[in-house]
Amino acid sequence: MSDSARPKPLFFIVLGLVVITLLGYGFRKVLFPPEKADKPEIITADDLRQASGTEAPDPNVPTTVKEYTFKPSEKLPPLKDTSAYQPLQERTVKFALNVWAGWAPIILQNGGGAAGKTWTTPGGEPFKVELVLIDNPVAMRDAYASGNVHIGWATLDMMPLFMDELKKDPRIMPRVYQQVDFSNGGDGIVIRRSASKDPQHPTIADLRGKKVALAQNSPSEYFLLNALVNGGVQPAEVEFVYTEDAFQAAAAFNADKSLAACVSWAPDIYNLTEIPANHMLVSTATANKLIADVWFARADFARDHPDICEGLVRGIFEGMEKMKTDAGKKEAAALMSKLYSIPENDTAGMLADAHSTNYAENREFFMNQNNPANFERTWNTAYMLYRKMNRIKQAVPFDQVADFSILQKIADEEPFKSSRNEYQINFAPKTVSTVKAEGSEILTKVVTIVFSPNSWDLRKKVTIREGGKDIEKLYDPNVDAVLEEVGKLAGQYGAANIVIEGHTDASMKGQVAEQMVKELSGNRANAVKTELMKKFPNFNPNQFVAEGMGWTRPFDSADPGNHAKNRRVEIKVIALENPE
Q: Are 257 and 55 in contact (CB under 8 A)?
């Protein structure tokens, strides 16, 4: 071949670049692994203790919206800017809220959304309140940070998602003074019976390996994450399909039969479950102390106007009292209808979706360390879950946000002094068989308390040789952490029966009577119940039933000889009434 016919050097350079590019593309996942944020981490027991194709939609289901779009997983966007708050015009506070039943007391107390009615501070100074409707939590956060509103809204579980940005500017650090409600049936998880192992009795475990539609960075996500982890399902085992909001999640579920479940709000969750093929897996009527709504003031506003913050607390409590009357409820529904642009019949129906938390219940939430569903435990649980989802970074301690100074200040005044907790469930005494027959199991949580052989003493001590000395140690040093974990679960599912099942190992099978083994396992279950009552004295004992299972159900059927794991306790959450 002549020199003129040979390829020029430039040809080989270009060829080499093409080869390198192709190789680089082929090995792109090795050379440039995906971001860690795309993969949720494994959530361990220690973490908890420390804190196909589509089919046509069913046209008979009246979901709130008919159209929906899916969106990719993402962190909250960074704040565009922060600034000092806008000065009060005619002493008018701008209070952000969303379309939710829990705001009924302040809407009633304010006479609607406009700044019309005059509020007063403890010193008698007048001020007004303008209710600013901002449904999108990111838009609300940005309006709050830029100073366009003085007061923000959130469910407490959402607030850790805001903190990576809010903590950068001390002027906008939130001060949470008051809880306004617990969601009381307004949120729920709906599952297709066809996606369940037992279509008549679906449980959280049925979501493993399935697709679930929900709104990201919202109470829906916290609700689902909490239920999954307590049901022994890792978030990584479930495919989250995100929509813009909870109403779109319901519409997507109704239209796309590849979705096994959705997390949404009333009325959609109830409309969906009127279809026999669907089942309400769990709602906040059962997990009634899981999602708490709060309002918070900017730190600079709270510093400059502590009297107005106190006036808001007092006024909202007064609105809660008015809501106890039929006339108050009727007026609130009419005002909500106007503010929310929703028919009055619908707003009246919404009122039952939230339980307004009075003064005594606020004290329980903010200040009672023995309350298993208090501010601190809710805050820490949300932080743990979202950090494991790689959604947030360094935790902000709860006491840098919670401010119960106003609750303390008014403690000895009437009507606050005489306030009593009105959010109590009356559990009738029932046997285990009755609870299981009448109720619907939601989830099973396996907790391991390492019992000494033949013992049900949770605090049994053993003598060991350590450092040349004989010292006494608890047989299981993690007992208190496990009790905390179980107590928190029982507190969150405050309207459910909790079945405590004790188990034994089968090391003496064939040598001792099975009835003796059932008694031992029953004693273990009752020991856990007794300790829970000591640790959380406000629990109703009738919420819990204990049962001894003996050795009939080893922890791992493939490894029945693992005696330490078999000496365990399992916790079942049972809805009070079977919805079928």
A: yes
